[in-house]
Design brief:
The chain has helices at 2-8, 11-16, 21-47, 50-59, 62-81, 88-113, 118-140, 143-152, 164-193, 200-225, 233-246, 249-264, 304-309, 336-347, 387-404; strands at 154-157, 160-163, 272-275, 278-285, 289-294, 299-303, 312-314, 322-330, 360-366, 371-379. It has 426 residues and is an alpha+beta fold. Helix content is 59%, strand content 14%.
């Protein structure tokens, strides 16, 4: 009976040893494990290159490595010291060190997967409270009773019985495997995908596909670990199929369209596109939407399905050079050669205007009020926009026309009176 009590509650045997000389030996052993762990880490860091030492400090490896080494040395020292005396303090130190390793490792994974944010801080605090809460229940001997109480509350699902304890364990297992899967996907993306000679779209598609497959494998591994038959997922799969058929087809279509855009490379990150009345640069192609940043800084979030089913003008798909056309009308009787020289002079020497193909002035037709001309030239940086450039050239055209006396006509109308009889007197 006393052995069961000692196994359940680690504090009571420790309290009885407070006045025992064995406690001093255990304290000395713990101090030695700390010193030995620091020494091993110091020797390891000296063997690393400067770059690896920088990564060591950046990822905070010491926060995990030191308690892990202390845990290893404590287990070895406890097994040796147990032949001569009681080791109740070491029995208490082992779960504490183990929990510290788990918390620090979880923090490292989370910070490697997610960007710093208030949500990440909440997740880290939740993980810390969960781990330390389980350790506290284990030390005080209440963990087994809590597990039995949670396991007593359950319900049958098919041929299997699910309890609160099983569901909780499944959620924790899924969370752990998902963290590992996301970490592995990030590692593969950084080490393998970025090193391959592929374009940006193919790398993004490969990264998203790898992440999706690893997440699926993580769930399929986590559920059997806690004793849940994965055939139970067939029920949820049927419900998901009905949901896709009834109301989620748009979401599913956007996801499929996202992978299509990434694979067919019709739209790439950095391209200048026009979708409807929106012109801008493609900033991000997500699985559900595409972000287009306009020249005024605003960002439009467009569903991927719209980019597949509607007309998209890609200004930089095959060639970044874009033709700019500026219509100008001059009055009848204008010296067209002088007007042509004035228009070409307005774009001559401008940095953004390409010399090849050379700028040209086209005579498009004869309008009701004047002669329709068009100044055409090419630019190589459509991402800079055209509004400022057009404004500068229009200013130069106006000044040249004023200097050379070239008239921009007003609308003219010729009214012919058919009935020429005089009006009756009032």
């Amino acid at each position: 009976m006393m052995n069961e009590q000692e196994a359940e509650n680690l504090l009571q045997p420790l309290l009885r040893d407070l006045t025992d000389f064995a406690l001093i030996a255990q304290v000395i052993l713990l101090l030695l494990t700390f010193a030995l762990g620091r020494l091993v880490l110091h020797l390891l860091r000296r063997q690393l290159s400067t770059e690896l030492q920088a990564k060591w400090r950046e990822h905070g490896t010491s926060r995990v490595a030191l308690p892990a080494l202390m845990l290893l040395f404590t287990l070895l020292g406890r097994s040796i010291l147990a032949h001569w005396q009681s080791v109740h303090l070491l029995n208490l130190a082992v779960p504490l060190l183990l929990s510290f390793v788990i918390v620090q490792a979880s923090f490292g994974l989370l910070r490697h997967i997610f960007r710093p944010s208030p949500a990440l801080h909440v997740i880290e605090r939740s993980v810390s409270w969960l781990v330390w809460g389980v350790v506290a229940l284990h030390i005080t001997g209440y963990l087994d009773g809590l597990i039995a109480a949670l396991d007593a509350i359950g319900f049958p699902l098919g041929k299997q019985r699910l309890s609160l304890y099983t569901i909780l364990l499944a959620l924790i297992s899924i969370a752990i495997t998902l963290m590992v899967a996301l970490w592995a996907a990030r590692l593969i993306e950084q080490r393998f995908i970025e090193a391959t000679p592929l374009n940006v779209n193919m790398k993004i598609a490969l990264a998203k596909l790898t992440r999706s497959l690893l997440l699926l494998v993580a769930v399929l591994i986590a559920l059997p670990l806690v004793g849940i038959d994965i055939t139970v997922l067939s029920v949820f799969g049927g419900a998901l199929g009905v949901g896709l058929g009834l109301g989620l087809q748009k979401i599913a279509s956007n996801y499929v369209s996202g992978f299509t855009l990434l694979l067919d490379q019709s739209i790439r990150i950095g391209d200048m596109v026009t979708v409807g009345d929106r012109f801008g640069q493609v900033q991000q192609i997500a699985t559900r939407y595409t972000v287009i940043r306009a020249l005024d800084g605003t960002e439009a979030i467009i569903p991927n399905e719209a980019l597949i089913t509607s007309t998209v003008i890609n200004h930089t798909l095959a060639n970044p050079n874009n033709r700019v056309a500026m219509p100008v009308q001059v009055a009848y009787g204008t010296d067209l050669e002088r007007a042509r020289a004035a228009l070409l002079g307005a774009v001559a020497g401008r940095e953004r205007v390409l010399p090849e193909p050379p700028p040209a002035v086209l005579l498009k037709g004869f309008g009701e009020s004047g002669i329709d001309l068009e100044l055409a030239f090419w630019i190589a940086d459509p991402e800079e926009g055209q509004l400022a450039l057009r404004s500068e050239i229009n200013w130069a055209i106006w000044q040249a026309f004023q200097r050379d006396g070239i008239e921009i006509p007003y609308p003219h109308r010729v009214v012919e009176i058919v009935n020429k009889q005089p009006l009756p007197p009032l």
